[in-house]
Amino acid sequence: MNSLCTDEQKKHLLKLTTLVSDKRLSGQEAWSAFSKPEKSKKFKGKRPETERFTFAEAEVRTYKDLRQIVQNKLFERCGGSCSYCRRAVGHYGWAWHIEHVLPKSKYPAKTFLLSNLTVGCVHCNMWKGSRVDKQLRTQKLPIINPVELNFQYSKHLNFVQIGTESLSFAKYLPRTAEGRETYELLSFKELERAHAINGVDGSAAALHERITRGMQIGLGTEEGRQLAALLQRLKTSIYNLP
């Protein structure tokens, strides 16, 4: 992210990266301090006691401004689409997150590297977190890596959409082992089914949107992640009905 910072902002970002390198903050905690900045943040984690960290007003302002700059940069780089499923995100698409390709929980030194960040929709972010990130033992992902050098999505997956005035279909066609793992681990079959149902049932599309929007609320806390997981299971059960 340093390439996007002014000299003053670099100093403020250095505070977080130093806290991570000194192991005073985990990657997840540092990202929470960055993405939801406050003058005072408390973290428990694996500590015997809760520890409070303070941030100057200028640091809080830097984190707010820099987050928006990073969001805009990633959105432009990814063409307003999720890097994994290639569905549109943003104001006229699905909810999305700044996605850490290599998880910050296991690779905290990469938490603030722009080269490790991309756009991930709520659906892909949830499944990647539970099925890929938690099981990851090396820096080699079993699924596609959208930030690797010379990455080409079409080499691994073809995404086909067909629509008429009353029907709409989407299909993912894996072409490589990474593409097949992406299709399976990120539940692209659910996306295909949801796309078809939403195309013919406006009420289902509205429900899908409300659930997906709800999933992104509070993901920075354990309670929020549990709620998001519950909503994901609800969404999956709806679109797996016969």
TrEMBL record:
<protein>
    <submittedName>
        <fullName>HNH endonuclease</fullName>
    </submittedName>
</protein>
<dbReference type="GO" id="GO:0004519">
    <property type="term" value="F:endonuclease activity"/>
</dbReference>
<keyword id="KW-0255">Endonuclease</keyword>
<keyword id="KW-0378">Hydrolase</keyword>
<dbReference type="Pfam" id="PF01844">
    <property type="entry name" value="HNH"/>
</dbReference>
<feature type="domain" description="HNH">
    <location>
        <begin position="82"/>
        <end position="130"/>
    </location>
</feature>
<dbReference type="InterPro" id="IPR002711">
    <property type="entry name" value="HNH"/>
</dbReference>
<dbReference type="InterPro" id="IPR003615">
    <property type="entry name" value="HNH_nuc"/>
</dbReference>
<keyword id="KW-0540">Nuclease</keyword>
